[in-house]
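Budget justification aside, the reviewers requested a transparent look at the raw inputs and outputs of the sequence design task funded under Objective 1. We therefore reproduce one unedited record. The lines immediately below are the structure tokens for a 641-residue chain.
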């Protein structure tokens, strides 16, 4: 018996298993092959190339057995037609994977796509319409399988430019942002306020929204905007504003803004308004939001109104304070450079990811109970947040932050608390010390009186919200601004220094939009691309991973088809432009017949499990066809010319 080491034995078992699976997928009998002989062990087993090729073959055979399936979600386009950029992002995703996943289509498994082949046929309206019946295109893609596209697709230069430039993934853009942290740091003075600000790294880690980071063409929600065009430097006298939002779940599965409250350092309520999402609400989550269907019945304030009001109310060096601020920012669809998150400042776990709730922090540090079973009040939460911040400021940077060496256990014992935060001696509490942070505002909750909702003198809109939380102190608040009419008021007094930080421009510079496709090919050395497109769109220099053919040098369609057919199987990405009006056709009659046969032949040379995209584009209308070429298409391809 031929002996092998235990390590080789394990490899041998794996090799046998792979060979057996290949034979089974091929329809052969695995028992007919002797895998135990010394000859097999001596030659095949030690050959790494054989083993690698076998694994590659097995992976391909598995993919062919279970080809990827396409599911369209065109509703995610928010009513917009498909555009060049949408097709480009699909091609980039299946080709490179480390880019953003398209929202409007899913391919499962996406890694089962072996090749992406894109044809763009520039033609007249008659050819666009003729493809819908009794053609190869109709047979291959299925009846009524076309998708109407935007008119901009007719511009071939823009279409292929979008294909040849790959947008960076959000992860890659955020990496660049972190590397440009100095953009923010140079506008922050070295004082306690600056020390407590959320860092650029934390903004990235907790997914804060950033300027120009959203794809507007696919954005279902309102685009994210900065609170100001330009920002001043954070100094000792830069003001705090506590913000809190309530959200409800809408039909698109997002938590959208339904109430926003802003409180200044003196606990004056600057803004408190209900907001109605454009998307239909499917869950009011009243237990947590305090929002009911009836409350929003006659509300016509939108999130864009809130964005404008914030921009007007806030000075250019404002510091926004909140609890898990990233959630509020996402709901308001805003971004702001200067933030303090009280859940990070008062870190009881020592881990940023394990943040204490506002209710817990209020009970431990202020000896107050909030957020009962009747729902949350955003004014109450904003006031509590401001009180916690002032309490923190009065004790120093290290206070309340275990990650900076502060001991919660020691502090809890000194203040009559257990290590879990429960109060041992009710008579000994923090009320006297904590009230220092409260300032002149009402210290205790009001009686459970009916909310007094005052209205704006100019437009008649409510200046506050009829809160449903019993005994909530917000019921007697006097709100300073109307969310709409505040735009006509005088803006707040700002620093005499000229604002210098352009948050949007800074991000545009450090989180650039895209990289040439050649850069992605270089990072994936086993991949290559073939371009048969007009000149003037791409650098014509060929290299090991890219081959370029100028379609303007071809006078007949047959010549172009022959050239593409020779190359198509050898590349992972194939782009072909067909100018049906310029190229000569041999077939008499309608040119659609020649184009249809040309596509049949070229597609027949593509690999199995390739993603085939065909775009017919005319000045009046453009249609897109998308399918995966599987072995089920054998009968359709047998008539290829």
């Amino acid at each position: 018996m031929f002996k092998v080491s235990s390590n080789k034995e394990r490899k041998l078992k794996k090799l046998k298993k792979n060979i057996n699976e290949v034979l089974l997928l091929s329809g052969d009998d695995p028992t007919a092959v002797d895998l135990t002989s010394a000859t097999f062990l001596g030659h095949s087993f030690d050959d790494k190339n054989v083993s690698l090729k076998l694994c590659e073959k097995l992976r391909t055979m598995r993919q062919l057995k279970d080809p990827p399936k396409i599911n369209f979600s065109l509703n995610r386009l928010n009513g917009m037609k498909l555009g060049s950029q949408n097709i480009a992002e699909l091609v980039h995703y299946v080709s490179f994977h480390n880019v953003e996943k398209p929202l409007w289509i899913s391919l499962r498994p996406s890694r089962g796509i072996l090749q992406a082949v894109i044809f763009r046929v520039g033609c007249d309206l008659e050819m666009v319409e003729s493809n819908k019946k009794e053609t190869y295109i109709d047979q291959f893609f299925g009846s009524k399988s076309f998708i109407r596209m935007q008119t901009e697709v007719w511009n071939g230069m823009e279409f292929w430019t979008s294909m040849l430039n790959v947008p960076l993934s959000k992860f890659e853009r955020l990496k660049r942002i972190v590397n440009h942290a100095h953009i923010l740091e140079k506008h922050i003075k070295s004082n306690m306020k600056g020390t407590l600000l959320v860092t650029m790294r934390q903004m990235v880690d907790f997914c804060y929204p950033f300027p120009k980071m959203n794809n507007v063409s696919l954005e279902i929600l309102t685009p994210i905007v900065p609170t100001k065009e330009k920002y001043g430097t954070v100094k000792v006298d830069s003001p705090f504003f506590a913000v809190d939002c309530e959200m409800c779940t809408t039909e698109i599965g997002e938590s959208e803004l339904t109430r926003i409250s802003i409180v200044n350092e003196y606990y004056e309520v600057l803004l408190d308004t209900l907001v109605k999402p454009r998307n239909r609400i499917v869950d009011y989550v009243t237990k947590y939001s305090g929002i009911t269907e009836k409350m929003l019945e006659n509300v016509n304030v939108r999130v864009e109104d809130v964005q404008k009001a914030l921009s007007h109310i806030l000075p250019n060096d404002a510091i926004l304070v909140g609890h898990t601020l990233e959630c509020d920012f996402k709901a308001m669809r805003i971004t702001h450079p200067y933030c303090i998150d009280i859940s990070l400042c008062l870190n009881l776990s020592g881990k940023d990811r394990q943040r204490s709730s506002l209710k817990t922090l209020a009970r431990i540090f202020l000896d107050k109970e909030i957020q009962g079973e009747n729902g949350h009040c955003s004014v109450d939460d904003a006031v509590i947040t401001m009180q916690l911040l002032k309490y923190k400021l009065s004790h120093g940077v290290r206070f309340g932050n275990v990650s900076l060496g502060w001991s919660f256990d020691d502090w809890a014992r000194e203040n009559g608390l257990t290590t879990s935060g429960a109060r041992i001696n009710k008579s000994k509490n923090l009320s006297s010390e904590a009230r220092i942070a409260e300032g002149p505002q009402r210290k205790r909750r009001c009686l459970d009186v009916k909310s007094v909702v005052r209205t704006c003198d100019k437009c008649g809109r409510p200046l506050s919200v009829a809160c449903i939380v019993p005994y909530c102190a917000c019921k007697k608040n006097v709100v300073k601004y109307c969310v709409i009419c505040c735009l006509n008021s005088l803006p707040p007094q700002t620093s005499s220094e000229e604002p210098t930080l352009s948050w949007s421009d800074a991000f545009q510079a450090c989180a650039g939009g895209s990289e040439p496709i050649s850069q992605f090919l270089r990072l994936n050395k086993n991949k290559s691309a073939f371009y048969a497109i007009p000149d003037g769109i791409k650098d014509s220099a060929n290299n090991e991973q890219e081959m370029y053919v100028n379609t303007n040098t071809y006078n007949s369609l047959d010549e172009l088809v022959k050239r593409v057919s020779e190359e198509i199987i050898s590349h992972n990405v194939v782009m072909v432009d067909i100018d049906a009006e310029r190229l000569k056709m041999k077939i008499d009659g309608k040119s659609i017949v020649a184009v249809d046969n040309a596509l049949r032949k070229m597609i027949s040379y593509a690999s199995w499990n390739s993603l085939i995209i065909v775009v017919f584009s005319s000045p009046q209308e453009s249609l897109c066809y998308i399918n995966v070429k599987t072995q089920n298409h054998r009968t359709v391809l047998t008539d290829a010319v």
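Residues 214-219, 440-448 have pLDDT under 50 and may be disordered. The radius of gyration is 32 Å. Computational costs for records of this kind are itemized in the attached budget.
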